[in-house]
């Protein structure tokens, strides 16, 4: 492994050198292009030479037609299906008018709702039809069925713009169906009239045939135009309403932000604790392995094990919290949004540290029972992180001295302080910096319009203090 | 010859672990350590290390800015090896751009770490050649191909630069071009001189930035 990294193990590298040289010589881009080209060439060889040997006519005709007008069978089917569907939708509209009239007599409300529900359902069918046959990309709208409770469902059914747009779509389909029907009838009539009700003589045959062809082409052209109109209108009337799309976007960006925060937390807490533990363990093993004139240092090893113990314990409790968040699902079975820790979670955090041997007390001032909601969620999380980082650093660097975590609300400020007595661990280094998290926390405090200070306290311990405006931007 | 090292990391546990691991090598000695970028600059000025092992995220001045400051002070020494917890592409590329000679993962095997330090000090190869080359190639904005922005290189020097940018070590280049290692060393030095690059990592960045190499 040493040789592969240094790249100086010339004996091992010699065999690979010749094969790597041309690649490097072609500026690195050539191999990708080359391999792509080679693969493409193979593809052509496979798919285009084979059919000439096989005399299967049908697939070739189909391929020819598909190449001329991609998706034409679907469109033809769409036109034909449009005719009976238009009749059905007309019936639905008549039903709607009928039930509105019935409302006057006091019995039609349920009927109206029924018709609207059917219209929404048909909108779904139409959406699938347009997707399959026309190849139009239509996003799903909201599902009234997913609403809980009959009242909410009815309210969404009547108030959702989607319902009325679906109804509008069905109306448009009726009109388009009528237009398609008219086009077909007219085309067919003209065709029949030319073919059977005129005198076919030697002179008139050619012009008549041309006219008939023209009629067929015109009919197809008009139908094609109608289908295109449909395909263009479908996403607007059948797709998700703009407000729904905005809501969906907002939700997905919220999810993304949640995930990024989760990643950052994992990086700062567990990733960092594991790295430090790994290096301590590696070092400890070295100090216990006698080599040459190096003495064995059991003291260092014992201390390293203590650090590893602390680090691992805090990493596990953070992992526990993250996993419980990941496992939580909301009522619909979707993953719940990542719940950031709040001030209410501080008790659990400190209980875990007490298990680890740290005598720590929590003092909360100026936030009464039920007033927790008055502190913005982002600020609560930041406060939690300050306490977490501050107390964990005490364990890491000072052993187990008496420690106090304080959260005070005063004059529109939230003051979060973690301070400890003098270190119990003799070799602890109260140097600047402390844990990695402090740098990140300082940035976040500044972003929230506040400040974070950390340094030795007059009593010989260490103090981390964050002052955050309650009306800040956290 | 012993290599003098400076450890920069905001976690005292990482520093103490690294110190023990590195001091157990006969040719390495840790001459100082620092918990912040600012402290690193002070200690470096006092102890004159050969290689600085630099963490990226730190309070006050971060590792990228500290690297840039060290390079600005003296482009020859010390060389900077960036140590990271995770392969965060953006941070790594920015630290190379700031003048770091290479990077290594904190979790890598102690032997690999020690080798990376020696490679950085000697400069005969890139650290983690494949990773470094890919990182630079994917982060440098693409330019039209052409050596216009590069100073006049001889044909041989251009060949050597291509291979250096391909991540090859001096020994590999010597074998590939049927030259002696001493000749390759001379070519590499003159390429670095012409490009104004302090080491081969910077030469690779220059090769991609000028469009001499394309991703």
TrEMBL record, chain A:
- Asked whether the UniProt record includes Zinc among its keywords, one would answer no
Query: Which reaction is the catalytic activity of this chain?
Result: ATP + protein L-histidine = ADP + protein N-phospho-L-histidine
UniProt region (Disordered), positions on chain: 1-51
- Bilayer-crossing residues are 76-96, 102-122, 174-196, 208-227
The chain positions of domain Putative sensor read 78-238
Signal transduction histidine kinase subgroup 3 dimerisation and phosphoacceptor domain: residues covered: 259-329
**What is the protein named?**
histidine kinase
Annotated source species: Geodermatophilus obscurus
TrEMBL record, chain B:
UniProt-listed GO biological process terms: phosphorelay signal transduction system; regulation of DNA-templated transcription
Task: Name the source organism.
Answer: Geodermatophilus obscurus
Upper classification of the source organism reads: Bacteria, Bacillati, Actinomycetota, Actinomycetes, Geodermatophilales
**One of this protein's Pfam families, by short name?**
GerE
User: Residue ranges of the HTH luxR-type domain?
Assistant: 146-211
Q: Which UniProt keywords apply?
A: DNA-binding, Phosphoprotein, Transcription, Transcription regulation
* Response regulatory domain segment(s): 4-121
Coiled-coil zones: none
Question: Which molecular function terms from Gene Ontology are attached?
Answer: DNA binding
Provide the positions where the record notes the PTM 4-aspartylphosphate: 55
Q: Which domain of life is it from?
A: Bacteria
InterPro entries attached here?
Answer: CheY-like_superfamily, NreC/VraR/RcsB-like_REC, Sig_transdc_resp-reg_C-effctor, Sig_transdc_resp-reg_receiver, Tscrpt_reg_LuxR_C, WalR-like
Name this protein carries in UniProt:
Two component transcriptional regulator, LuxR family
